[in-house]
């Protein structure tokens, strides 16, 4: 039966359970507001309470790049690519920093938002999405400002390959997301893993292609370091800034696999055990 063109639900027969209508409430909109609120909270907590705020997010990596460039300029006549030490180091460090920022932030997402997760409108997935979105956008903005500033400051003229640059940044963010989600579970389930992870990953800075290019290494070392996905990420970034350089060894599919596998495993583990982890 219809009234003014609107069909009404048929009443249940005697003894028949009423059919539950689907909930058409504005859940996506509410979830978006929750994620935005979590992002604003983190922005005020991390950057709003310290002198300088967001300026330190730019100054800190730039100072590290400058110091590293000066040290290598005193030991080497020219960088492995191009003529600017600071640009060479920056193209290796910025995707590495993006990965580390995203992975570290998501790895502590539930711990950071634990008080808010007691509210029924805030879920563990909201906390992860908020931290991933905020930290990825922040790291991308810092990367853009630093690399653009270096190109202008040094007067370096180059033809940028935006495809390789965008691919490198996207892969770094995906890898950080996957590692971060997996560690988000492991850090809370096994607290000792956080200290172990810090020790195990400490050499990453030296073996991720920041200080060298893959082709300059001996064949045996190349075969070993190829399994480090960050080597592929930094290689693609440099291919985007140096037209004469082609990172033939880089495999985006391999990096995607290294990001998606821990991401899926971490999401499944958190979906099943997040209540137990939060109630510890």
Walk me through the structure.
This protein has 280 residues and is mainly α. It has one domain (29-39, 50-278). Helices cover 67% and strands 1% of the residues. It has a two-stranded antiparallel sheet. A hairpin with a 2-residue loop joins strand 1 (2-3) and strand 2. Helix 3 (85-107) crosses helix 10, helix 5 (124-154) packs antiparallel against helix 6 and helix 6 (162-189) runs parallel beside helix 11 (252-278). The longest helix has 31 residues, at 124-154. The chain is globular, with a radius of gyration of 24 Å. The termini are far apart.
Short description:
The chain is mostly helical and 280 residues long.
Write the layout of secondary structure elements.
Elements: E1 2-3, E2 6-7, H1 27-46, H2 55-75, H3 85-107, H4 109-112, H5 124-154, H6 162-189, H7 192-200, H8 204-207, H9 219-225, H10 229-241, H11 252-278
Antiparallel strand pairs: 1-2
Q: Sheet bearing the most strands, described?
A: 2 strands, antiparallel
- Topology order in helix (H) and strand (E) letters: EEHHHHHHHHHHH
Strand content: under 5%
End-to-end distance = 54 Å
Q: Please state the structural category.
A: mainly alpha
- Please report the total strand number as a whole number: 2
Average pLDDT for all residues: 86
Q: Percentage of helical residues?
A: 55-70%
The low-pLDDT segments are: 1-9, 16-26
Gyration radius, rounded? 24 Å
Helical segment count: 11
Number of structurally distinct domains: 1
Overall shape: it is globular
Strand order of the largest sheet: 1-2
